[in-house]
Specification:
Blueprint lengths: L16 H5 L6 H7 L12 H21 L5 E2 L2 E2 L5 H7 L19 H10 L4 E4 L2 E4 L5 H5 L4
Antiparallel strand pairs: 1-2, 3-4
Length: 147
Amino acid sequence: MDAGADAGHAEGPLSDHGALYAESGNARPRHDVRTATVQSNLDFSDEADMVKKLRVGLALQPLLTALFANSPFTDGKLNGFLSARSEIWRHTDDARAGMLAFAFEPGMGFERYVDYALDVPMYFVKRGAVYHDVAGASFRDLLAGRL
């Protein structure tokens, strides 16, 4: 499956990789089809518990990547990596992937995480049946009526 967006295109965001992901890192098209994985969601009892679990989860990412590295092949050939998924993520959209260093700073809490989430660049906005390329704009911009 190919994924991407064509600004103002009614067929949706899955039509043109280049237009949508040009600013997101060179591995984005490969990411969409070669990084299937399992996700876990953890409940938390309060803000301090959320921070603790977020920090532990982030700190464990490299260990878990190593423990579950099982993608040394691409298109039936050795690719030089124990985890091709990890290598793809290293080159995919730094705004959404990688270590959230701010999570380890003093004062980390709900508000700081929401600020991060509001400022992650968007790809597109759907209005009616039309997808509009808004690469670089944030959800904060959308909420403020700037899009």
